[in-house]
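Title: Comparing notes on inverse folding

I've been comparing how different people in this forum approach sequence design from structure. To keep things fair, I'm posting one structure and asking everyone to reply with a full sequence. Here's the target:
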């Protein structure tokens, strides 16, 4: 663990330490997952010391909302992107709602997110539906979705959370495509699912920072050794040319808790010419590089651009008033308190996104998933996941403090709702 520069602000230092420690761990965890491709580095996870869990200053705000199970007369109108914000709403439990796929029926899911296969037994987390306050979010209809992308390329670009959203989309539609009419071609950076009869592709392109870094193809396990070329994007972006629907994200990789080694200009000095910048500063430069690329290369008459906002992490159970909890481990219900916002979603980076996207020439539709996902402490992969290509052992499962994954989401699960929002915008 390094000695990261303390963040400014009123948050007590001990909390910061916990967060940083958790995030640094997360970064490693992260890395490990992806590197299962290259499998060159065996990581040692260095556990952070368990910190004093109780924080008196955090009020118990758990499950105090009256919301989710109250039904008023439903006078909400059909979704219209101009009229209705999907950001504010509530999760409603409805056991008759069944996901369109399972981790046994969809052959394209990574083991990382296949929670049921990995032993998760509680199932309530699969039966919650997001209801925006002002309108009705249309149900995802796979055939309609396929018709909307007929003759087109749909590409998700970003990190492993984006990969989850991509897998969710593939699984949501694949069951209506007959055998022999679909194919999956996997590459290290670029993976393509093809629906032949629709002449459509649903693709994923790995670029965890969107901009280039020394940790794209070969993951650098130690966040301190990662260097970002915050003004370079072409090597990735040339693969995005001519795509009809682009869906981007980037967030969690910027959250190592360390200052970001950022390099720009010519690289005459080699990689040593970097400067260490605070995450929001570096993120701002990186995102502007992306925005410039989009503005100069995307013709909005032909291409639609989406940006998925940050996916919250749930590393600190005191955020939702569960002082005795261990991260998101063992949580089986969403937070019902309206507007709950935890320490796993950095508002500074959110405002960078709002600022950069707001000034772009090409219109970018935000899929603002942060608030709705913030509530879903129950839906992470937790201990029902893998590490370095292997299922967690029973011993590791006994040690959720170090092994529970409270970043990624089980599938089926919350990313299906992100795609329901994307779908609503494609109708
Ligand atoms: C639950 O979902 C079913 C199927 O979509 C729907 O008919 C029913 O009205 C829902 N129940 C509630 C309480 O919303
Ligand atoms: C299939 O879609 C691609 C674009 O994704 C297009 O270039 C090609 O012409 C289409 N082919 C047919 C037969 O429609
Ligand atoms: C987009 O379409 C409009 C209307 O057809 C046209 O005026 C405009 O020049 C087009 N923009 C680009 C970048 O091609
Ligand atoms: C997890 O939850 C179950 C059921 O609520 C409970 O029996 C068990 O003790 C909990 N485990 C831990 C480690 O908190
Ligand atoms: C997303 O929604 C939240 C409210 O939940 C808001 O604070 C934030 O500014 C929105 N993000 C962007 C980039 O507009």
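Reply #1:
Here's my take.
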């Amino acid at each position: 663990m390094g000695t990261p520069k303390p963040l400014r602000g009123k948050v007590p230092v001990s909390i910061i330490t916990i967060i940083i420690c958790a995030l640094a761990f997360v970064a490693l965890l992260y890395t490990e997952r992806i590197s299962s491709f290259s499998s060159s580095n065996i990581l040692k996870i260095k556990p952070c010391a368990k910190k004093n869990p109780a924080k008196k200053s955090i009020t118990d705000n758990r499950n105090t909302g009256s919301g989710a199970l109250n039904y008023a007369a439903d006078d909400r109108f059909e979704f219209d992107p101009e009229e209705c914000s999907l950001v504010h709403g509530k999760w409603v439990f409805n056991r008759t709602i069944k996901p369109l796929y399972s981790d046994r029926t969809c052959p394209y899911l990574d083991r990382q997110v296949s929670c049921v296969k990995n032993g998760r037994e509680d199932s309530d987390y699969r039966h919650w539906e997001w209801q925006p306050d002002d309108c009705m979010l249309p149900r995802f209809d796979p055939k309609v979705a396929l018709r909307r992308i007929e003759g087109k390329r749909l590409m998700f670009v970003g990190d492993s959370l984006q990969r989850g959203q991509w897998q969710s989309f593939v699984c949501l539609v694949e069951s209506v495509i007959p055998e022999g009419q679909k194919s999956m071609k996997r590459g290290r950076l670029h993976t393509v699912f093809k629906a032949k009869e629709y002449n459509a592709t649903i693709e994923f392109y790995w670029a965890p920072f969107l901009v280039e870094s020394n940790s794209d193809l070969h993951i650098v396990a130690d966040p301190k050794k990662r260097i970002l070329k915050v003004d370079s994007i072409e090597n990735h972006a040339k693969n995005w040319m001519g795509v009809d629907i682009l869906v981007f994200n980037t967030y969690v990789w910027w959250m190592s808790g360390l200052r970001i080694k950022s390099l720009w200009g010519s690289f005459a000095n080699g990689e040593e010419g970097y400067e260490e910048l605070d995450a929001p500063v570096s993120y701002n430069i990186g995102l502007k590089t992306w925005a410039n690329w989009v503005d100069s290369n995307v013709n909005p008459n032909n291409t639609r651009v989406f940006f998925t906002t940050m996916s919250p992490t749930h590393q600190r159970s005191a955020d939702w008033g569960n002082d005795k909890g261990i991260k998101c481990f063992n949580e089986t219900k969403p937070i019902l308190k309206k507007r709950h916002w935890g320490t796993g979603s950095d508002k500074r980076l959110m405002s960078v996104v709002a600022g950069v996207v707001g000034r772009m020439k090409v219109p970018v539709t935000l899929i603002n998933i942060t608030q709705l996902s913030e509530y879903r402490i129950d839906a992470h992969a937790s201990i029902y996941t893998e590490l370095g290509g292997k299922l967690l052992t029973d011993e590791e499962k006994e040690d959720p403090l170090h092994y529970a994954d409270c970043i990624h989401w089980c599938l089926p699960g919350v990313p299906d709702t992100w795609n329901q929002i994307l779908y609503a915008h494609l109708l």
